[in-house]
Structures
1.
Amino acid sequence: MRKKEKVNEILRLLDEYYPTQDKCYLDYQTDWQLMIATILSAQCTDDRVNMVTPGLFRKYASLEDFAGASLSELERDIHSTGFYRHKAKNIIGACQMLLIEYGGKMPHDIDELTRLPGVGRKTANVIRSHVFNLPSIVVDTHVKRISNKLGLTANQDPEKIEYDLMKLLPQEHWIRYNTQIIAHGRKICKARRPDCGACFLAEECESNEKG
């Protein structure tokens, strides 16, 4: 019972301190743009991705443009996001697969999404959440780190963390849990210097309890 009460209190406080509406921290206009932006966000900040994508989406204005892009040129275009060779190859491959196998339409099934090059469960769940509004838990670095601190999971593997959180959190909170935890990780529970004194989740945080 204590675990359930703890989870309810954490969610209540997150709703109190952060907006309850779902928010995506990546800028996009189409489903395929969100897919590409999320691929770019791997090992890169959302702010950096949002600096790169306006020019990128002007240059490559359609799914077909990305599918037919020059690999070396796309690598240069996304160089500042890091791991650009791997990302460029996956972006082109994912766009080609979307056109050839799905007629240019983004699938919503997670097994179908994760068939696309460069699309793991995190990217798939971002798409499911923000494009299709399907209950999904996105495990990024903030969710992984803070969920462990709160004692909601003891796992380090993102997929295992996802399943742990699916068991604990009510479905109606799955999507916004990610956006609220991102906000908390940016404002208070920063990776290098968490401000435990200002944290409204301090009483529920096992890391804080351990000093």
2.
Amino acid sequence: MPELRFDPIQMRWVIISTERGRRPSDFHQKTEHSQSTFCPFCEGNESTTPLEIYAVRNNGSVANGPGWKIRVVPNKFPALKIEGNLDRLGEGMYDKMNGVGAHEVIIESTDHQKQLHELEPSHLEEILKTYRVRLEDLQKDERLRYILLFKNHGVRAGASLAHPHTQLIATPVTPKTVSLEFESAMRHYATKERCIFCDVMRQEIDDGRRIVYNKDEFIAFAPFAARFPFEIWIMPRRHNHDYSLEDDATIVNFAKALREILARLNASLDNPPYNFVLHTGPNTNAKPARPNHWGTIKYDFHWHLEIIPRLTRMAGFEWGSGFYINPVQPEESAKFLREVEIKGL
């Protein structure tokens, strides 16, 4: 019998339609990439990208040349541009502003093939610290209200280049999906004086059926109302609203959790295409500030990473209704991920 499940964080219903008959083992598929022979992200091709904003380099190497480990550059074809003023205007009942923001690419390593879970632990830690560095820097810009870090792995997930990389887009407005999470968290805190994410974590740990990882102060679980097969959320057990405020020890533990979850997804689904998004707190330095806007964000929000394998496609019903249809129970996908054998961890 299909179920409708409600997600109290993102305020939406999901249809868990197991009668569609998709078992976890039915989702094995190879990730495909563009077959272009030239890669601007490979070492030695630094002149083909915009000048780097930040890099982790070997001693003695020169900026914008070889010898780097991690490199951050502006996107060559940015969705938003850092230069200019917002110039907010009304046009009848509509509103508009200039497309001011930031769009950066974090090139994860010089290796064209290695995925995040295949890198040395210390290298993955440096990538996650680079995320923190870029968040800290962009939060100083008062024009920017939100900074979203995301990764597209595989053509079906939107990756146009095969070389492993993460992207960052900073916007002058708060994106709708994140804004819904902020509003849900704020209402929950106003009523109960507790973080909704902390409450969800406690319940998931007590239940246990949807837990995939629970150690080193991090938890990973399939959400109760998962939108997609094998959707997984990772979050720190210690409350913190802003990823940029995390210390090095927490990032080391985050790297362990992320590495294991990506390895389990890879082993279970044969290198599936996926997206992940880092949902952190808004930029509270943004101006003009609204009175009491997100006033309790420090107490009610909880940063987390959402991983979404791209195993199904949205069709007319999903687009028209806002419902998601998930053919696999979250409990079943979590069990499958827990039990898969992974090597090298």
